[in-house]
Amino acid sequence: MLEIKNQNLTVSVDLHGAQLTHVVDNKTAHEYIWDNLAWPKHAPILFPAIGRSTDDEYFINSKSYPMQQHGFASDYDFEVVYHGDRKLVLSFKGNEETLKSYPFAFELRLIFTLSLNQLVINFEVQNLSDERLSYSLGFHPAFNIEDDFEDYSLLIEPAREQLKKFEIVKNPFPYRSGAVKELAFSGSSFNLNHRIFDEGLIILTDKVNTCKLQGHHYAVEMELSDFSHLCLWTKEDEELPFLCLEPFFGLPDRIDEKQELASKEGNDSLEVGEVKKYQCKLTFE
Fold it and tell me: Which residues of the chain carry a pLDDT beneath 70?
């Protein structure tokens, strides 16, 4: 576990999966990140896939390759490129095992930087292969909910009269049906309750620039304008005190529709040698 720290916050990151495991307020000792075996993760990095592929596979030029839910980046140790008091740079370049499911050379870098009460996370993806690279990328942080779930609210900007989501088929796995539905309430500022997740995770169809999770005593604001979608999730069948705010691009497959990687809906791509950068900024209050 590696740590970066300033006068306001102490941040811990696990080299395994480059997972953000703790963000602690130095004055109050409040822990912002979920840490409980009821869901034994904290903030996985999702790469090079988002969600589940039909039958856990996809195609490249009609040849099938296995791909597990949310890809494989969270399963491997990252290398330390730089570790300072307030900045941490980690890198993952894949290996012989990842080539079996994703036959490309790449580098995925994560840069964690602390400034006052903000944690800025920069993601960099470089194509090191000799052909065009298609991929999804996401961040899956779970934030603690103190007191009652209903005591927290979520504010999403830009404001809209009616938020829409992709319809999710929950069983056997969370695929998309292909339809779009309106959320059961109007507006883009609302109080939380577990019932809004009865139909499964919520992937908003409209672009989100910022979202703010607000409780009586603590709040987290996320800036995610570099990402195309925001997903909201907590365990649907258990009333656990956490909420995931997940910025990503790329989408789960439509049910029973196998995908060619190059045309997979929502993916981004890189030409040979190209680098792309994305940023997520978290402000803790």
Answer: none
